[in-house]
Amino acid sequence: MRFPKRTVGLAAALALVALLSGVGKAQATDITISGSSMLFPLEQVWATAYMKTHPGVHISVASTGSGFGISNAANGNITIGASDAFLTAELRKRYGSLVAIPVAFEDTQVIYNIPGIKKSQLLRMDGPTLAGIYMGKIKFWDDAAIGAINPDVTFPHQRIKVVHRADASGTTFVFTDYLNKTSKDWYENIGRDLSPSWPVGSGYNGSDAVVAAVMATPGAIGYVGLGWINEYHLSSMALKNLDGHYVVGSVKTIMNAGKAALHDPTFPDDFNQSIVWKIHGQDVYPDANFEFWMVSNTLPHATMKEVKKLIIWALTKGQDGRYTNKTGFAPLPFTPLKPRLNKILERLLPGNTLSIESGG
Amino acid sequence: MEPETRVSRTGQLVNEEESMPVSSVPPRVLFQRPLKENPRLSRPEEPRPAEKSVLRDLRMSTHAKIQRSERLFQSMLLIGGTFVLALFATVLGVCLVEAWPSIHRFGFSFLWTSTWNPHRQIFGAWTYIVGTFWVTGIALGFAIPIAILSSLFLSDYSPKWLVGGVSTLMEMLAGIPSIVFGAFGIIFVVPLLRDHIEPFLANTLGTRWEFFNGDNMGYGILAAGLVVGIMVIPLVATVTRDSLIMVPRETVEAAYALGSTKAETVFFVKLPAVVPGIIGSVILGFGRAIGETMAVLLLIGNQASIPSSIQDVGYTISSLLANTFTYAVIDPLYSAAEIELGLILLLISLVVNTLGRELLMKLMGGRLAGSVGGG
């Protein structure tokens, strides 16, 4: 076949344009963050703010669930995997290249919809009773076990409708972590998991669906993160902590838990430990957790440098209240965190001089 | 654009520029009159003679050239055909390989084990198979009578002005994305069930049969089944109506001549005549209902337990995959079990489709079977 000269010229021009745009793209760094749906709102505001001040870096964020974040960060499909759950020993064995970096505080709180109970009324809940409800052993709101810890409340004789997450979720992990540590029954039969096999109840895909189902169903009980409580002005139950105090989750009480963990010298430097049901104190919420970014140390050097810059930005400027508090997270306390974080970052990019110097 | 000589619809050679049928000119003129350009039949590489004609151009496109284009066309068709085949083989092969750890470990007991515990590495499909059939069953049980009634109404009883409108709406209903139906289910069906229908069921039938009693959550197999049923109605109704229209006029007139009333004619003559069509459309509907994911996921309550009451929550295979597959990839056995579930779904719809086709063949003596089966 013979092409007219004009076509050849056009093709050459097109090829040149493609080449040039390709070169242009190669200069910008693409960072993909995917995983935890709990951390997603914070990541969105971070990405927008970071891209504004750092031209040449393009960040795309997706909410796909913590499980997806962990596995895909390990096999290199995404740059940063977001997770509500820390790396358990089993996961560390499977994904040896992953480094977990705590980026914010969150928690899981119990929400309810009981006809006849006023919103201002404080309801208390402890682990064994909550486990009993979620295992279908406590069926009615006026059960003696619930009444015993709430002597000042008259409950209606209403069936408890258990609501849980259907997708694999870090919120569920933190919630079942609390049940796991406070109820022997739960520990033996169900355990801690992102997607456990629920004995009773009904499951919904995403925290938003859980909130909707609980708000619409009289008698329902469910669990979501602090961000959702703030957004929908829900009232949550006070959970019993390690020292027997009943504490409602708030930015302050979950920060207390995190701070205590960071000041604790026995807490591992790589943060691969739960802080649920571990922290002593009066005003400490028992079901708080770190939100993690998982980064594989096998990333190419150039990308890693950009990723590290982003991490440092997120851990310093990104902790500002207009990002964290506004989206329902508590900022990380900086002072106790600094030496530990520098140690973690050293693992990601050995010999690099970038390190965290100052907070906010 | 260059003027083109082409064959018009009536089969005449036409030169577009002059828009005069070539054959309408006397043949002598055709030989003498030079045509300006003829891109399809001429070969631009060769130096053109000063004078051209249609016949000369025709002679130039040799036998070999025609054969070459024939072969090219044939091989393109072959590529298209084998691509579909290869695609199916690849999907099936990849699924089998990925599901192998689970198939190997659990064998056939996977089918009737009702424990699904990723934590303890025990996987069984029974709960999900049961849930899938519950939703499909409720959907078809709800959709088939309504679809048949509506198509009978449309073909025989409805005033003329209503037919066009209702059929168009019916076809539009079939085109609405399933997520929209899911949302409709959450904002309309679930509150309706929770506040009115389920308490009513529990207070009437539920006092005698535990099967109708329950928690009145709104969410559950009933809500999912009804909404999937709404999606299936247009599928069944349109096919049934089309077959009702095809019933020969003579048959209907014969029934009237024998003295049957309108209702008798419709019920005893027309309806039996379209049974194969209804079966075919039900198979289509079954295929839609069993694989429906998003609407079911939003409404069924996603709880892995075997429903003992119509008000219970459940779990279908497709909604389990949609909910947990991204997490299951962490664990090879977990993901293998989920892919095996997908294979089971594939197998069920294959079996139902094949059986339905066979049934149709028998009922219709081999006519039409290909046109209504499948789905």
Global morphology of chain A: elongated
Task: Indicate the structural class of chain A.
Answer: alpha/beta
Look at the structure and name the CATH superfamily of one domain in chain B.
MetI-like
Domain tally of chain A: 2
Low-confidence stretches of chain B: 1-11, 14-18, 368-375
CATH-assigned homologous superfamily of the largest domain in chain A: Periplasmic binding protein-like II
Give a written overview of the molecule.
- The complex is a heterodimer of chains A (360) and B (375).
- Chain A is of the alpha/beta class and 360 residues long.
- Chain A has 2 domains: 11-106 and 288-348, D-Maltodextrin-Binding Protein, domain 2 (3-Layer(aba) Sandwich); 109-262, 3-Layer(aba) Sandwich (D-Maltodextrin-Binding Protein, domain 2).
- Chain A has 13 helices and 11 strands.
- In chain A, helix 5 crosses helix 7.
- The radius of gyration of chain A is 23 Å and the shape is elongated.
- Chain B has a domain at 127-363: MetI-like (MetI-like fold, Orthogonal Bundle).
- Helix content of chain B is 68%, strand content 2%.
- Chain B has 15 helices and 3 strands.
- Chain B has helices at 27-32, 54-60, 63-106, 109-112, 126-157, 160-175, 178-203, 221-246, 249-257, 262-273, 275-291, 294-299, 317-328, 332-364, 369-372; strands at residues 5-7, 13-15, 20-21.
- Chain B has a 3-stranded antiparallel beta sheet with strand order 1-2-3, with no helix packed on it.
- The longest helix of chain B is centred in the N-terminal third of the chain and has 44 residues, at 63-106.
Architecture blueprint of SSEs:
The complex is a heterodimer of chains A (360) and B (375).
Chain A: H1 5-27, E1 29-35, H2 40-53, E2 57-63, H3 66-74, E3 80-83, H4 89-94, E4 98-113, E5 124-125, H5 127-134, H6 144-149, E6 161-165, H7 170-182, H8 184-189, E7 202-204, H9 207-216, E8 220-225, H10 226-232, E9 238-240, E10 246-247, H11 251-263, E11 288-296, H12 301-315, H13 334-348
Parallel strand pairs in A: 1-2, 1-3, 5-9, 6-7, 6-8
Antiparallel strand pairs in A: 3-11, 4-8, 4-11, 9-10
Chain B: E1 5-7, E2 13-15, E3 20-21, H1 27-32, H2 54-60, H3 63-106, H4 109-112, H5 126-157, H6 160-175, H7 178-203, H8 221-246, H9 249-257, H10 262-273, H11 275-291, H12 294-299, H13 317-328, H14 332-364, H15 369-372
Antiparallel strand pairs in B: 1-2, 2-3
Helix pairs in contact in B: 3-14, 5-8, 5-11, 6-8, 7-8, 8-11, 9-10, 11-14, 13-14
